Fold each of these.
Amino acid sequence: MISKPKLPGRKKSAKATPPPPPGTAQAAPSSAPPAPAVGQEVMVDLQRRRDQLIARVAELQWDLGGLAYEMAVRNQMKVDLLVKRAVALQDADAELAEVERIVRTEETGSAGACSRCGAPHSSGATYCWQCGQSLLEQVSSDAILRR
Ligand SMILES: [Zn+2]
């Protein structure tokens, strides 16, 4: 009758299965997803983060352009150096794109941040786009620990 979500790779779980509820027919369903209590806070953080990232991307682009120009006028292109700067720019740009996407779809209010690296993620995300942390397991073990 009750279909519980499968928890991948959890061999040892202290209380994986909750005891059956006592005969209260009108009890609220305990299988409901946890309410997003931090929606507003996350939103403000995300907007702040977005502003930081916009500034950082602009700065990195400016730096990269200036560096390339300096190398060009000296006729000494150090590609390694340019690539290193470009990677930093790419990272910031990717995070900015993700943050902007989340801010746009924040109406659902269930987005969060990765507990390992702090990168923001959208509500439907299964894995952290930045460090690869499984966000599903993160949620599941957290929910179990609360029992
Ligand atoms: Zn992460």
Amino acid sequence: MARMEDFFYRELMKYLALAEQKRRWNPFTDIPYAQANPESSQTLAQCVETFCAVEMYLPDFTSKMLHMIRRSRGRSWFHINWGYEESKHSLTLEGWLLASGHRTEEQREAVQAALSTLEWELPYDHPRQMVCYTMVQELATFWNYRNLETIAAKEKDLALITGLRIISVDERVHYNFFRNTVKEWMKWDEEGTIHDLKYVFDHFSMPGRTQIPGYDEAAMVLAKTGIYGPREYIKLVKNPILEDLKLDKDFHRIESEEERAQAEAARKAALEASVERIDINGHAVPKSEIGKHPFNSHAVSQVLENLKPTRGRKPELPATYPNGLKRSAFLDVVGIEPHVRSEPSRSIILDHIPDKLAGSRGMELMDNTLNQRLLAIGDELSNNAEEMREERAQIRQEREVTRKSRVKNDRLFRKHEEGNS
Ligand SMILES: [Fe+2]
Ligand SMILES: [Fe+2]
């Protein structure tokens, strides 16, 4: 475990340095949302909505895993950063749905509310199984977006093509992080790791399956378009992963004796390099890390450029668009208005949200005597029965006083009326 911890921490540092230097992007300014095609098909929008819905379970993906791995500095910090990167994926997809005019701000809110009702639970209870699961999931997601892009390209939607391309890079980097972790684990516990991997493959299903309204119909649309279905899962996800890990379809290691000896020598060398430290100002710094990440002056000037204050105050925007629909906060930040579509676009999720429970308004009045009786029975069965009994007696007394005074007032009123007539 200590060796794995060392590995995770090292991988985290490399990952963060690379991400900060090369992979940071801005979901508000790097996607040309205005170039979303207002004539794109509703099938395209349904696919985007399904993927966006999966990404919307981020609060569960992050919080539940974080509890499991909180003691690992490398894994937990990676996970937090991974969560930040994933958050931009749903923002971008949602932004496209709004900009293309496929969904209104009201529909976005309704989908969000529907998705938040059910929680996603961890499908496996061991951290290593969760790493295997996330690895599979990341590669599946990568192919989902790549395949979706072919449809976006056919429909000439530059905004979606750009978004999907940037997101796919993130997904590929995520897959690699998890795949490297699985490989490292295989070095220290090959049998156990392969066992976990097989278990995950045998029980794999995409997140959101039981939470997203209308998931079956949405999955059918994805399969029909050839974006993702059982065939793509085997061809693009399961087989390549087994190949990457040098396993055959029965999860047996494919390796010659020579390769095994080479791997063992490399593992030993890596271990020796990882423990070699040099002293810098009293800190034991790993020798292998020295001088790896040079000072990046371009990045600094970029940051300083971004920090320049913007002059003037932006005018206050009205709450709705001229057609009366609610403004999108996302598109306001991007600085564009949604396209107006010639045909309405159908949301699978919104069509499958179960009918809301009827509220109290309009509900038939219950028998009040029965209500009072049940209240009394409940009170008598409570810890503070005596107190409740006294309270009820007091209410009865007050009601009696009100009733008597009402009767007296009625009588006086009638007398007065008779005197006038
Ligand atoms: Fe993602
Ligand atoms: Fe990802």
